[in-house]
Amino acid sequence: MRVLLVEDELRLVENIAAALREIAGFAVDCAFDGREGVHLAGNRCYDLIILDLMLPLLDGQGVLRKLRADHDRTPVLILTARGEATSIVELLDAGADDYLAKPFDLGELVARTKALIRRGNGVAHPVLRVGDIELDTIQQSVQRDGAAIDLTATEYHILEYLMHRPRVIVSKRQLLEHLYDYNWERHSNVVEAHVSNLRRKLDANVAEPSIETFRGRGYRLSLREPLQA
Ligand code: CA
Fold it and tell me: Are residues 131 and 209 in the same domain?
């Protein structure tokens, strides 16, 4: 999952980015003013945007209006400060999905972030299921055909990304952009190894192969839905 954080207070940016990376395992890009935020949002595909209201060059409300005017449907979590003139109702009307008032608990921010991403992907329930694979986004645990599978953090995040897009070919670049921060290019040669380890673990005791490779195009989670009894 990849998050864009638009906030001008350096200390807060560092704390939020660290929490999202370390607790949730997300890739985080940071913009320090509203115009940079709009620019990054327009050039990349994010799973969530965390947007402060008081920003240099273009304020948070302006950023939100610009995104929605450009038909960008990425979920937006607004950070508000005490004494700000903009009302919550106005923000929600302008297309915000949730808000958090400063000062906030970083654990709560991470929890809200995860919930918004699940909703943005059309999955309200924290457990994802594709075929006989089950992934619990709260416990960060995986089962196949009822048996627990032990994955590394990177393998888990690859599988989570694929499970949000079943039966769709996901390119290596898409995976890289969602797994790593800005300098994702340098990880490019390790993704294949992670995917092949993930596939080996998933398919260890099961006949149906889980992840297909399309040379030069990417990967696809290809499990059939189980037949209804
Ligand atoms: Ca600010």
Answer: yes
